[in-house]
Design goal:
By secondary structure, the protein is α+β, with helices and mostly antiparallel strands. It folds into two domains: 118 residues, no CATH class; 120 residues, no CATH class. Helix content is 33%, strand content 10%. Pfam families: Fer4_3, Fer4_7.
């Protein structure tokens, strides 16, 4: 409950400042940037973006029940959709909870209640956007302290869960080893349907498959200083890898 109150205070603060700034600086003119449709990573089960923005009542119930602290509320700085839930995958991805509690908690239908399993979600698609940063491709061992950023984020939460502690313990075990974090930490029940490491010898890379739901865990946990693998919100495997013809 404390977390949701902090999130609400945050977006109210930025909303107030933003509205005052617009009123003083531009009168009735509103920046097109604020009116554009959001392309942020939404929680599992999010309906199409325009419908989502119309249905979401900004209650924060999805945030409150998330056991990984994956969901946060947008403020005015982030554009149109102030107060709506989204996921910043570099901070904390979605861990594909089996009961999909965020969907169950949504009272408005902004998160589609027909979604019963996280692996059936279509949040986005993972992409090896910056292969030159990939530790696996460059045969660079996972560095010491690689998980500090994830530990720090977790420790800031008021009610760290056992699920988070278990995730961190598993992540810490990769230190000094060849990097396979994005594949081995994929939270799906059948991770090989979404991602695997391919290649020969010491040079391997992640390959994405159509089972990827765009949860963002691979982006969160990527041990490179800047993530080599990122999630494209709202896109499907077909959108990126089939229609565009991009090799995963």
């Amino acid at each position: 409950m404390a977390n949701i109150k902090e999130e609400r205070r945050g977006f109210i603060k930025f909303s107030t400042l933003g509205i005052l700034g617009l009123a003083l600086g531009t009168g009735v003119v509103i920046s097109p940037h604020l009116l554009r449709a959001e392309m942020r990573l939404r929680p599992p089960g999010a309906v199409p973006e325009k419908e989502f923005l119309a249905l979401c009542i900004k209650c924060g119930q999805c945030l409150q029940v998330c056991p990984y602290h994956s969901i946060k509320l947008s403020d005015l700085v982030m554009g149109h959709g102030v107060g709506t839930p989204h996921i910043d995958p570099r901070e904390r991805g979605c861990y594909a909870c089996s009961a999909v509690p965020c969907v169950l908690a949504c009272p408005s239908g902004a998160l589609e209640h027909t979604l019963e399993k996280a692996e059936d979600a279509h949040m986005g698609i993972a992409v090896l956007e910056f292969p030159n940063r990939c530790l696996a491709l460059t045969n660079t061992p996972v560095p010491k302290g690689h998980s500090k950023r994830i530990h720090d984020f977790t420790n800031k939460q008021n009610n760290v869960t056992q699920l988070e502690r278990d995730m961190l313990s598993k992540l810490d075990e990769f230190e000094g080893k060849q990097c396979t974090i994005c594949a081995d930490m994929c939270p799906l029940p059948n991770p090989l349907s979404a991602i695997s490491m391919v290649g020969s010898g010491d040079s391997k890379k992640p390959e994405i498959y159509d089972g990827c739901i765009g949860c963002g865990v691979c982006e969160e946990l990527c041990p490179a200083n800047e993530p080599a693998i990122v999630v494209k919100p709202r896109l499907t495997y077909e959108d990126y890898y089939v229609v565009k013809g991009v090799k995963s």
